Amino acid sequence: MRAMAPGLWEQDKRGAWSSVLTSSPDRHYILLRSDLVEEDRDGQNPYVTAYRSYSSLALHRTFGPSLPLWFSNGLSGVLSNSLVRRNEIHFGRPLPDYVRLIQTGVRFRVPEVLAMTVEAPAYVNQLSRFRFDANAWGLVQIVQYVLFGHPEGQQRFV
Predict the structure, then answer these.
(1) What is the rounded CA–CA span in Å between residue 48 and residue 81?
(2) Do 49 and 117 sit in the same domain of this protein?
(3) End-to-end CA distance of the chain, in Å?
(4) In this predicted structure, what is the pLDDT of residue 41?
(5) Same domain, 57 and 127
(6) Total domains, the chain
């Protein structure tokens, strides 16, 4: 990471970034800091940014632009907080930053989330993009709960 993203490395003296995604014309790289040793705390994956980057790349390479933006970003968020343990896998754990943001009431309306595009000013702006990602994550969590949270969920959803 020090060699491939020196600017980020120098800015990050406290170790806030565990990973970063960078691309070249022929491939993508997810750089992981090897000098950080963190355990998951409060059910949050310490490598959430690496998992999110990988999930996003896998969805894009598999489905291209055919997936709605809210779904691909939301599902990447859900997958990003997967915790792989010796005898179990935790999938779809809440992301504390997203939960806090949604609880503050600073949300997009559902039609705005569904209509968002990568060219939209709200998506290009870093702060509102984070808000969008939190809302998309919440929407995918609801869909996941409806489908898998109740034995009859699939029948109710369809």
Answers:
(1) 6
(2) yes
(3) 46
(4) 64
(5) yes
(6) 2
What is the DSSP track for 104-120? TT----HHHHHH--TTS
The length of the chain in residues reads: 158
> Could you give the CA distance from residue 96 to residue 103 in angstroms, rounded to a whole number?
10
Is the same domain home to 20 and 4? yes
Both 31 and 94 in a single domain? Answer: no
Q: Which residues contact 39 (CB under 8 A, 6 or more apart)?
A: 46
Going from the first residue of the chain to its last (158 residues), give the mean pLDDT of each consecutive group of 10, the final group possibly shorter.
65 61 77 66 77 88 90 93 84 86 87 94 91 94 76 52
65 beta partners: none
What pLDDT was estimated at residue 116? Answer: 95
Residue 91 backbone phi and psi in degrees, to 5 = -125, 135
Question: For residue 84, which of 59, 50, 58, 61 has the smallest C-alpha distance?
Answer: 50
| Residue-range definition of the domain harbouring residue 3 | 1-37
The answer on 57 and 12 residing in a single domain is no
Which residue type does 131 have? R
How confident is the model at residue 21, as a pLDDT? 73
On whether both 66 and 131 belong to a single domain, the answer is yes
